[in-house]
Amino acid sequence: MSSIRVAILGFGTVGEGVYKTINSHKEKLSKVLGKRVEVAAVLVKSKNKNREIDNRVLVTDDFEEILNLEKLDVVVEAIVGQEPALTYLQKAIQKECHIITANKEMFAVHGSELQKLAKENGVSVGFEATVAGGVPVIQTLQQLLNINQIKKIEGILNGTSNYILSEMRTNDLSFSAALQAAQEKGYAEADPTNDVEGYDAFYKLMILSEIAFGGKPEWAMVPREGITGITEEQIKGAEKLGLRFKLIASIQLVNGTIIGSVRPTLVTETHPLFNIEGVENSVSIEGDIVGRITLQGPGAGMLPTASAVIEDLIHVVRGNQNTVTLCPLSNGEDERAEDKGNQNWLMIHPGEAQLTSVPVSVVTQTDNHVYLKADEPTISTLRKRNHQASFFEVLGEFQLKKSV
């Protein structure tokens, strides 16, 4: 039986998970692909560290050694950051190797150019693991795009932030205490900035945008807020109103313009993301024919992410390139946006709200809450004029009762 030789770049949580999964599922992979899958090489930072890697596998800190292997079919990249990951993958493509990446930041920035280079060299790119770990959102989008037009995508794309918000609500913890708990369980890095400030979710959203709409919004125009400013009082106040805080990444096409955001959002029990707790990820997709579908599952971790990489491995070896091909931006009539930019918002303020000079539709107002419908520019103006207030978008059916 012939073999498929794989190199793994990086041997952290993801890289090690891929290595273990290939070895533990060799027979099943052989039956599916009709070929043996072998790990030929692993790129590491230091060759001196003890690792449980077969001594027949090349373990090196020099990528050129991997490129010089006599036979190499697939390169799996599991490195953090844009470089040297991008350079390694470009070289692998030029050597006519299929590539698979779990690197969300790098792919959000350079995905299109890697896709183009791969097409020129007759190889495939797999990137399911860049967005939601073991949740097959990219393959689902590709299947929907055969006939559906995507109207909107909303998702909880960062398990660390979701775990912190869940802990703050269910265990009455402060942000710092919940973060510490996440770090102790291995859900958060020593430096959690990428997770809690929304960068991780932002990169994933840009990848989804390009798949769903064929392009990305101007990055600087996408509001990105993390969860570090959410307080225990706000969590408790929201719960009394039947609302929960979630870090929501959202993207849609409005009048030909791609509009996105990443920010703490209040969701009602009617919304599909309301009950997504802990480190789970979930993506809600609205199509013009299928309506709304919601995917849920583990968004990170050794085995869920490895699962996504192995599924990509099967696709690229089989030559199913359409499962990961970015679609062109629609130039047709835009029928994807329903509200033309207006959203529902809850304004939480310590005193009287100063809203009279701004044209908004105030739905309900109580002593310290204002429920209103407004667009992003209006909310930006309100923020400037009400420095003590906090503004949160509300998703799902909601009615603010004056007796609250």
| Structural class label | alpha/beta
Report low-confidence residues grouped into runs of 5 or more. 321-338
The CATH class of the largest domain is identified as Alpha Beta
Q: Taking Cα atoms only, what radius of gyration do you get, to the nearest Å? A: 23 Å
The proportion of residues in beta strands is: 15-25%
The order of strands across the largest sheet is: 11-10-7-8-9-15-12-14-13
Total number of beta strands: 15
Helix content: 25-40%
Total of domains? 3
- CATH homologous superfamily annotation of the largest domain: Dihydrodipicolinate Reductase, domain 2
Taking the alpha carbons of the first and last residues, their distance comes to 70 Å
Order of helices and strands: EHHEEHEHEHEHHEHHHHHEEEEHEEEHE
Count of separate DSSP helical elements: 14
Q: What composes the largest sheet?
A: 9 strands, mixed
If you had to describe this structure to a student in words, what would you say it looks like?
The chain folds into three domains: 3-127, Rossmann fold, CATH 3.40.50; 137-304, 2-Layer Sandwich (Dihydrodipicolinate Reductase, domain 2); 343-395. The chain is elongated and about 70 Å long. The N and C termini lie far apart (70 Å). The protein has helices at 13-24, 26-33, 63-67, 85-94, 104-120, 129-132, 137-144, 159-170, 175-184, 193-196, 199-213, 232-240, 302-318, 376-385; strands at residues 3-9, 36-43, 58-60, 74-77, 98-101, 125-126, 150-156, 243-254, 257-268, 280-287, 291-298, 343-348, 361-365, 369-374, 390-395. Helix 1 crosses helix 13 (302-318), helix 4 packs parallel to helix 5 and helix 5 (104-120) runs parallel beside helix 11 (199-213). The chain contains 14 helices and 15 strands. Mean pLDDT is 89; it is low at 321-338. It has 404 residues and is α/β, with parallel strands linked by helices. The strands form two sheets. The chain has a nine-stranded mixed beta sheet, sandwiched between helices. It has a six-stranded parallel beta sheet with strand order 3-2-1-4-5-6, sandwiched between helices.
